[in-house]
Amino acid sequence: MQLNSFRKLFNVPRLLLSPRQSNLPVAAVAAQSNGFHSTVPLGNAAAKASMLQKPKRPVNAYIRYAQSIRADLAKANPSASQMDLAKLTSAKWQTLDQPSKARLEEEYKRELAVWLQQNAKYLSQLTDAQKEELKQDRQQKADDKAKRDLKRTLKQLGRPKRPTNGFLRFCAQYKPKLGVTQGEHKDHMKALGEKWRSMSASEKERFNREAEEAITRYQEEMKQWEDKMLATDNGDLVRRKNALLNPAPTPSGGKARSAKKEQQPGATAGRPAAGGARA
Description:
The chain is mainly alpha-helical.
């Protein structure tokens, strides 16, 4: 939790405007660069004058502490990554004396009380459409967080990684040099794509064969991983709606019969149906 909070230090505020509003005037762009949240279209001078600014929520005690030591930590550990600095900050927070933590917590609560009043006033001035836009923005953030959490959980639980296809295996032989620009990397990949299309089937055969062999191993590893998840009460992570793996076909059409049986009410099976878990 503390590592996630530390990452918020580097987030950039976004305008609470629909991405469809592409004809924003200069004032809106200036507001975005200053970190303000605009909730009204700026079509004229009166609208500009009445532009609402969303009050900024105060950071919690841990983030306050992280902000206060960030510069010193970065100076003392010049080669440390942001994740390394986050771990160092977390370790220092664990050893911080209670009076200091209490002081930071008191500052947070005091500013939070002020923010609650300001935010209530801000929300009372919004139109129904603007309130709906805020609701959708919060929902999008929650959905994005859920996806990140799921991805992290699956990685921690050791879900097998889907292997690359033949073309990407071919590209791996011609990795661009370190330090190339994004444009140079794009041009490099475009050239590889053209080279791949010009290759004969026999020239591609080795890469495609390796990819097929890897996918066969992946399917078996996924089956073993799914069985392990079911045995450890992690069945909700198996065969999700958008799962990477479809059940491997069984001899003599067994897959089709099994799928038909799972669709029948009251049917039971050793493994859950493909749509049984929440997406």
